[in-house]
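Standup notes, protein team

Yesterday: finished cleaning the Ceriporiopsis subvermispora set.
Today: Protein kinase domain-containing protein structure.
Blockers: none.

Input for Protein kinase domain-containing protein:
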Amino acid sequence: MPERSDHGFDSKRMRPRDDPPPARQRSSTLALPSNGGWILDLKIEKCIGKGRTASVYSVQPLSYRLLSANTPLAAIPAINALPPLVLKVSKPGFDTVSEVVHEKRVYNELEILQGSVIPRCYGLFNGAVSRDRCLLDWDQDDLGGDSAEVTFSVLLMEELGMPRELEDFRNTFPPETWSEWKDLLNDLSRLHVRYQDMRRHNFLYAAPSPPGLPSMMCPFHQRVHEMRIIDFGFCTKKTWHWENERDKLHLMDLKELRARLQEGDDDPMIVV
């Protein structure tokens, strides 16, 4: 829960101190594996996205098994039953690792939206590798320091589709996309999350099913969304703003993004 200051408190915009944001809502339908006890062997195939603090890689599952040697084979799902997966790997360093860890907390906070509004997130993993065995496309500047090992964090998530093409936004913003993006942001607002990484590449189409898992019904709009919203490293969760105030802030940012896209400006737009 974020700390708050009552300096300049505006009751129309923010909740009173004795009425904090409600506790996290748990999903009764999302089938995510319980923590621990599973081993998943993956082969990294290619980098499909790069950001300021992390890169995303498509992966091929090789084996999937329980750690316990006493588990009957019939209880272990077939490897081809897994959906297409990706790894989001932080660049080495405290700040980038912390951002990925924060993103996993946001995925936990938004658990009831996984599979309908945001991707399914299967876990956070922390690791370290020696400098001479770095297999990823990190720059030497990313490694920093003098330690013999570099630390990093990894999110395992379902793979999604592509964003809309920049050319689709020239002059006229597609009304169906405008409505979809507003609804996705409203879903975040309802769970007290302020989204702060507004850009075209962070609104992706859901993966085709099969081979991806079927889309779930949005718990708030009671429909199946075509798209998903990603990248929560800059999100503020459990904000004290009222829901309609978060909606206003999201709409203001979305209008700015619309204007930029219509001018052909596709640069990242980090909002504060």
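Follow-up from PR in the comments: The chain has one domain: 38-270.
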